[in-house]
Amino acid sequence: MHRIFWYELKRLMFNRLFLALLIITGLYSYMTLSREIILGVAFTAPFSPWSFSAYLAKILPLLILTLLFFITFIYSNHEKQVRQLTFATPVDPFKFNFVKYASIAAGFFVITLFVILMGMVFLAVLFRFYHFGDFIIPIAITIIPCFLFVIGAGLLLGGIQYNFLYVLMIAFLLPGFLPLPPFFDLYGGNFFTSHPLTLPTGLYGEPAFTLPASFILGRVCYSAAGVLMVLLVRKSAQKCPL
Fold first, then answer.
1. How does DSSP assign 141-170, residue by residue?
2. Which of 19, 151, 154, 229 has the most CB atoms less than 10 A away?
3. What interhelical angle do 16-35 and 93-127 show, nearest 10?
4. What is the distance in angstroms between the CA of the first residue and the CA of the last residue of the chain?
5. Which residues of 150-174 are buried (b: 16+ CB within 10 A; e: fewer)?
6. CA-to-CA distance for 137 and 125, rounded, in angstroms?
7. Could you give the CA distance from residue 186 to residue 61 in angstroms, rounded to a whole number?
8. Is 15 exposed, middle or buried (0-12, 13-18, 19+ CB in 10 A)?
9. How far apart are CA 213 and CA 63, in angstroms?
10. Count of H helices and E strands in the chain?
11. Contact status, residue 99 vs residue 4, Cβ threshold 8 Å
């Protein structure tokens, strides 16, 4: 199965759409860094965990659109025809589907890693900042819950009706523009730019990177919901291959 995984990943990454999305994401990331993050958010330094989290939150809607575009490949008419031929061979349908999902997840994290590295290089070149270990928690708590929730929703609804994926693309753009409370803030954009203003400053004139229980609980709920939807997809795939 590992050969199939690498084949699917290469097939995805050498797709014209992948390259186009990578270029668009790179340009948007640079614009965000050079026009907004360079000033810092909520009176924090550009290299603070708050500013880096806000940077990721601003890029996440585009990353999520990328993930949903990747999921459309699974449910396209051409892919369904290929699956019928594949499942006529002695291939385990569940393992094959899992490999497809894994290749899409890997493609998403390749572009996400590109965005993260762009931010780190930007901060290293302009501010000679190299303490990137401070960003591990912001990266994990920003990216992972959102990824799990969206891939779960995409796989579940895409399996029901292919066109639902395009509805999801529009629906997942909205949280980036709405001033949602911490629990519901999927991307964290509003939270990371407003919450530091409510915290006391520390020794270096900046608030510590502390997260309220409501925000953490929201991330846990988004992650759990995503995992649950993936399990539902797995159960349905075992009964009836996609």
1. HHHHHHHHHHHHHHHHHHHH-TTHHHHHHH
2. 154
3. 30
4. 18
5. bbbbbbbbbbeebebbeebbeebee
6. 22
7. 10
8. middle
9. 26
10. 9, 0
11. yes
CB atoms within 10 A of CB 127: 12
Q: Let me know the angle formed at the C-alpha of 124 by 120 and 125, rounded to the nearest 5 degrees.
A: 120
Tell me the one-letter amino acid at 9: L
Chain center to CA of 238: 26
CB contact at 8 A, 58 and 32: yes
Judge contact between 183 and 214, C-beta under 8 A. yes
- In contact, 133 and 49? CB cutoff 8 Å: no
Residue with token string 């969206």: 150
The model's pLDDT over 179-217, given as tens digits with 9 standing for 90+, comes to: 889 999 999 999 999 999 999 987 677 899 999 999 999
- CB distance 73 to 158 below 8 Å: no
pLDDT score for 202: 78
